[in-house]
Design a protein that fits this description.
The protein has 137 residues and is of the alpha+beta class. The protein has helices at residues 3-22, 30-52, 76-100, 107-121, and strands at residues 55-57, 63-65, 127-130, 133-136. It has one domain (3-136). 18% of the residues are buried.
Length: 137
């Protein structure tokens, strides 16, 4: 075996090791599927709240009420409940993905990865939190 071929094999092995260490974020179990379904159903209610600025994406992978005044006073209880339910499901999702990868200790890393993905994919006009504070994307 040539040294060049050994280098290629070593690079492939290293890539496989790194991919394994990063875990499979697309893993699916019944628990993950149930959480994703719950989140998808809730998103229909959250989407206009993101657009209005009432709700924003936090840097830690959760949601926050960004501007409660964007929602009539009579609907703020529902707003709080939606944000709390979504944050609960997001925490469950991160834990379940980590557990499905056989590494429950990865939950915080998975949270950070998802936080960045959601912020990157957020449409223009949504509020997102970064180290510098809140900004409209």
């Amino acid at each position: 075996m040539t040294s060049q071929w050994k280098a290629v094999l070593a690079a492939v092995a290293l890539s496989a090791t790194l991919a394994q260490a990063q875990g499979n974020l697309e893993v699916n179990t019944p628990a993950i599927s149930a959480v994703k379904s719950s989140m998808a159903q809730r998103h229909v209610q959250l989407a206009p709240l993101y657009t209005s600025g009432a709700v924003g994406l936090k840097a830690d992978g959760s949601l926050a009420i960004h501007d409660a005044n964007a929602v009539p006073l009579a609907q703020r209880g529902k707003l709080n409940a939606l944000v709390a339910a979504e944050n609960g499901d997001r925490s469950t999702l991160y834990r379940e993905i980590a557990a499905a990868n056989g590494h429950p200790e990865w939950a915080d890393d998975i949270r950070r990865t998802f936080a960045q993905r959601w912020i990157d994919k957020a449409p223009a006009g949504w509020w997102v939190e970064s180290q510098g504070g809140w900004a409209r994307k």
